[in-house]
Amino acid sequence: MSVKDDIDEKASYGEKGDLEKTVVETLPVEESDTGRRCFLLFIHASAYRREVLAESDYTEEQYNKLKRKIDLYLLPLMWICYGVQQADKTSIGTQATFGLREDTHLVGQQYSWLTTIFYITYMCFEFPSNLILQRWKMGRTLSIYMIVWGVVVLCIGFAKNFKHLIALRALQGLAECCISPGFILVVGSWYKTREHASRALVFQSANAGFGIIAELVLYGIGKTGATHPDEQPWRYMSFFLGSLTIVVGILCLFLLGTPSEVRWLTPEERRMANARIVGNNTGHDTTGIKNWKWKQALECLTDPCFWFAGVNAFLSSVPNGGLTTFGSIINTTFGFTNLQVILLDIPRSLFSVVYFILIGLVTTRWKNLRLYFMAFSTIPPFVGFLGMSFLPNEHQYKWTKWGCYFMTVPFVISLFLAWTLIPSNTAGRTKRTLTSSFTFVGYCVGNMVGSQIFRAKDAPKYTSGTVVCAVCFGLEFLLLCMWRVIYVMRNRRRDRAMAGDGLSEEQRIRLGKELGEKDATDFENPYVRISCTSIYPRSH
């Protein structure tokens, strides 16, 4: 009888200690350390006989029916939530062209600090908020945060001076800090790895899709203000967005959450939802877990992909912070009016939605393309920012410079798709939480820097700011290439190790799922496949 057959026979009845002893005694001396480790892991996981869900418990037809129900409830809700958040966060740029700076007597860099303070509190409360998401019910936490920031946005409409604005923007950053990482965790708790990119892109497309709706409403408010300038239309923009956010937050209290939390699943559907994602090998969806694992935290420091995630977020967010704060203002320097700037943002948003849909469809149908799309999406904005930097602000270049501005649209893909790599390729709840937090720290710091590199003394062309943005995209392209090389090397190393472990594919799948259920990290679980570069198809 072979070692593997001996283990198969004993695994069905032996105790953990007996099984490990059998392995140690029967493994030949010349067996590699990797093979020995894989056998021991297999036996160790087999010894824990709590119920482990299996995808084979249900039919493909049952899973497809459940997936349609999940999509119907979650995707529209997350699309609206994310769209409202983006509109709340970025509306300050539009409000600035409708008198916010003049009516609140802002001078010098004070306007830039309204964005900087937002991301300072966003960053400071990012990690605590992620801990709350891990330890309390995710859906309820996100809903309460959303209602709070809706109240804050509403209050911005009553601000009279810089002190009022900076205090409210600080509170807004505190309240909004958990929505993006929270939604990434929600996607990871409901969907298979190959579905992460497409589902995340659905709600992230609201960045542009809902932006069209918001821009049309803000245009209507602004046009009314143009005929009645004493009414200060930027205040009514805050009243509208804040009220809408509160209503959506209340709706989320009843509908948003993980499979273990929501009320719109039956007990059997809840079990099916968990069984459906067990093949991800990244653990379960249960929130309310208080076990923090320092070993996983230390592992982050030795994982280059942890650092890539944070630095990539920083490089992508420097231009984002600049465009969010000064995009509308820059467009007026091309020669457009404030109302025209709102309307000209609509084709940018439409193109962004189409681009998101295209990438979502392609990454769902064909695997391992995410990093290619991410790298490509840095090239047009690199060229666009260089064009804005070196073309003069003269009437004959008005539309050419707007074309350069239009070319910046794809850059968000390199940030948003990087977020989807976290639930797909990072296993272990503590490690995933830390990676998510570090990514959003990079996101916050980048946006802070981006809001400050556009200095008042550089107006109206802001050349130094646009050049810095172009440099960031060049560096990001190089980083993304390195990131993919690391993933390819890691997968090939694991493939070589598995080629000599003596286990069948069925045993590897079983072991990978059991280790995932035990909250093993992607370093500890040799059967976690890097989804965007796997040489062989994933086994789910």
UniProtKB/TrEMBL annotation:
<dbReference type="GO" id="GO:0016020">
    <property type="term" value="C:membrane"/>
</dbReference>
<dbReference type="Pfam" id="PF07690">
    <property type="entry name" value="MFS_1"/>
</dbReference>
<feature type="transmembrane region" description="Helical">
    <location>
        <begin position="165"/>
        <end position="188"/>
    </location>
</feature>
<feature type="transmembrane region" description="Helical">
    <location>
        <begin position="234"/>
        <end position="256"/>
    </location>
</feature>
<keyword id="KW-0812">Transmembrane</keyword>
<feature type="transmembrane region" description="Helical">
    <location>
        <begin position="372"/>
        <end position="391"/>
    </location>
</feature>
<dbReference type="InterPro" id="IPR036259">
    <property type="entry name" value="MFS_trans_sf"/>
</dbReference>
<keyword id="KW-0472">Membrane</keyword>
<keyword id="KW-1133">Transmembrane helix</keyword>
<protein>
    <submittedName>
        <fullName>MFS general substrate transporter</fullName>
    </submittedName>
</protein>
<keyword id="KW-0813">Transport</keyword>
<dbReference type="InterPro" id="IPR011701">
    <property type="entry name" value="MFS"/>
</dbReference>
<dbReference type="GO" id="GO:0022857">
    <property type="term" value="F:transmembrane transporter activity"/>
</dbReference>
<feature type="transmembrane region" description="Helical">
    <location>
        <begin position="465"/>
        <end position="486"/>
    </location>
</feature>
<feature type="transmembrane region" description="Helical">
    <location>
        <begin position="200"/>
        <end position="222"/>
    </location>
</feature>
<feature type="transmembrane region" description="Helical">
    <location>
        <begin position="349"/>
        <end position="366"/>
    </location>
</feature>
<feature type="transmembrane region" description="Helical">
    <location>
        <begin position="142"/>
        <end position="159"/>
    </location>
</feature>
<feature type="transmembrane region" description="Helical">
    <location>
        <begin position="403"/>
        <end position="422"/>
    </location>
</feature>
